[in-house]
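Practice record 12: protein with fe (iii) ion.
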Amino acid sequence: MKLKAFHKLSYGLYLIAAEHQGKKAGYIANTTFQVTSEPPQLAISCHKNNFSTQIILDSGAFSVSVLKKEVNMKIIGDFGFMSSTDINKFSGINYIKGQSGSPIVMDSSVAWFDCKVVKSIDLGTHYLIIGEVIDTDEVSDDEPLTYQYYREKYKMYSPKNSPTYIEKSKLDDEVQSIIVEERDGETDVTLFDGKKYICAICGFVYDPEEGDPTMGIAAGTPFEELPESYRCPICNAGKEYFKEE
Ligand code: FE
């Protein structure tokens, strides 16, 4: 089985939110898709261990905000890599309350859908949850974020509870074998010496060869020469949270 084949599947990136008895929860998802038009229904896939999953099932409702291409990375960091049990993800976030009772995040959103749960299907690690859309709005004309753009720009992988998670070491094995194949064929491939640094909080990878243009770090800047004030562009963790990959 070729794991990289899974990366050829196209997705967007969405912020799913719900609220039950005053407890708000939200997470970032790529598996959100329309499954019927009459009535309009969306499907989402939620890991059973996620705090948000129980809130969605208990409240019987959820919202989907479609994220824009130039998304505020703090939203990705907080909603994608932190747990609602540890931080209040909605602090400082602009959101409205939908008809379903779910919070609807407006920051970095181009459109939203307010949904009532009509069915959930047990898939083992995840529930596939079907929601009927009861309200929507378009927020801006900005381009929506695609999963491919996110992965290429930020070199990020799916977090462990994502339905599309692939163990990184297995992917690296495939990449390594491609490099070896290309070298055998005398293709001009520069083997990178491999020193990259990974954020222990969110999994962002700092590649010295490319620097970090989002944080004003020039290509070719060794990790050791990053300023002490350097922060992970995704989750805002300091340098001390990075370790050699
Ligand atoms: Fe990080």
